[in-house]
Design goal:
Structural class: alpha+beta
Oligomer: single chain
Strand order of the largest sheet: 10-16-15-14-13-12-11
Helix content: 10-25%
Order of helices and strands: HHHEEEEEEEEEHEHHHEEEEEEHH
Largest sheet: 7 strands, antiparallel
Distance between the termini: 25 Å
Number of helices: 9
Radius of gyration: 23 Å
Number of strands: 16
Shape: globular
């Protein structure tokens, strides 16, 4: 079975219908293992996707393994300070090169036959390659034996890769977000905490929930008391960027009361909270005093891992003076996410029901859900196959 048995012309029409008459993706997109495999190939291998946090490669000589779209990758940081990505496999007999992060590395040595590579991926030496004690120590004519590099770029603390190398320049991909964040000095941010959760739900449900404020009044009583539904903006979208936000009247300890603000922040941003999703699964919110990254990593069709990293401005990230304020924010994120996880897992369970297959949508809150579904469809179905 292949993706076109679910992503057909009729679905494309529903995804482009007025929201109150349309739908989102069918159940199979959330529960079927074959759809999940197709999604890896067409969504995660062909787009710029988050791979890891750059602070995990803070030291020169770090070699760090990650998994992206079912592929084992190797991130390195050489003396030039550049983070690079390679397929984590020896070009000789296909052994995985490393299993855990290492520091102070001068090169990478395969545990199978001790072929060695530089942190730039260049083959350095092949012991006993021409026979016993006949080493190949200058394999200059073996470009094809270098590690297979993956397109890689770093934006602040976030490393992105494009596995198929065809997604275009990362600078172009990130430009719309950079423009929207004008006025926020992201260089002033420092990591202040992190959380992780294992959830029994498809990764798309986590993204859809993140960018949709409609559930707040029902699922998050405190959050609704902070900013009511009438004060919340409807989500919007532009190409591969989803966004929403609100203006709050006064701050609150659980939202960072007392923490230092971004330097030289424009007045109109001093009481704004804004959310963004960079398709497919890099999500974050930004407040006057913090930025919180939210990554739902697909594990299989019905299982994801959520990683939340919290960044604060200047001393707000580590100073004892801000310890309680910082911890209040981290605890609030923990508690809100637990509330969300219960709903995500209920929605995952609902995707097994013949009584649901795409939804009945709110014309005010849910156009963003329909657009996200269109992005998935467009990634997985060639343009020439689409109707409209």
């Amino acid at each position: 079975m292949n993706k076109t048995q679910w992503l057909d012309e009729a679905l494309w029409q529903r995804l482009n219908a007025p929201t109150s008459e349309g739908s989102t993706l069918p159940n199979a997109a959330y529960i079927d293992p074959e759809f999940f495999q197709e999604e890896r190939e067409w969504v995660f291998k062909k787009n710029w996707v988050f791979a890891e946090f750059a602070h995990k490669l803070a030291e020169t000589g770090t070699v760090h393994p990650v998994q992206v779209a079912g592929q084992s990758l190797l991130l390195t940081k050489d003396t030039d300070g550049i983070i690079r990505a390679f397929h984590n496999v020896c070009i000789h007999r296909g052994a995985a090169l490393i299993k855990e992060s290492k520091t102070n590395c001068r090169n990478i040595v395969c545990p199978n036959h001790s072929w060695s590579y530089s942190l730039k991926g260049k083959l350095l030496a092949r012991p006993h390659f021409f026979g016993g004690d006949q080493h190949d120590t200058q394999p200059t004519d073996c470009v094809s034996s270098n590690l297979v590099e993956v397109h890689c770029d770093t934006w602040h603390d976030w490393i992105f890769v494009n596995l198929d190398g065809q997604a275009g320049a990362f600078s172009s991909h990130i430009a719309p977000i950079v423009e929207k964040l004008e006025g926020y000095d992201l260089e002033s941010l420092h990591l202040g905490g992190s959380l992780s959760f294992d959830i029994q739900a498809n990764w798309k449900l986590a993204i859809e929930n993140f960018i949709e404020p409609y559930h707040v009044f029902s699922c998050h009583p405190w959050l609704h008391s902070f900013v009511t539904m009438a004060e919340r903006d409807p989500p919007t979208f532009e190409d591969h960027i989803l966004s929403c936000g609100y203006t709050f009247k006064e701050t609150d300890p659980t939202r960072g009361e007392g923490l230092p603000y971004f330097p030289n922040l424009p007045d109109h941003k001093k009481n704004r909270g804004e959310w963004y999703v960079l398709f497919p699964n890099f999500a974050f919110e930004i407040f006057p005093d913090q930025l919180v990254v939210f990554i739902p990593t697909p594990i299989d069709a019905g299982v994801s891992k959520e990683t939340i990293s919290l960044y604060f401005v200047g001393d707000g990230a580590h100073s004892e003076q801000y310890h309680h304020a910082r911890n209040a924010v981290i605890k609030n994120w923990h508690d809100l996410n637990l509330e969300d996880i219960g709903i995500l897992e209920r929605m995952q369970e609902g995707r097994l029901s013949d009584g649901f297959d795409g939804g009945v949508l709110s014309p005010y809150w849910d156009p963003v859900q329909q657009h996200f579904a269109r992005l998935i469809y467009q990634a997985m179905v060639p343009t020439s196959s689409m109707g409209g």
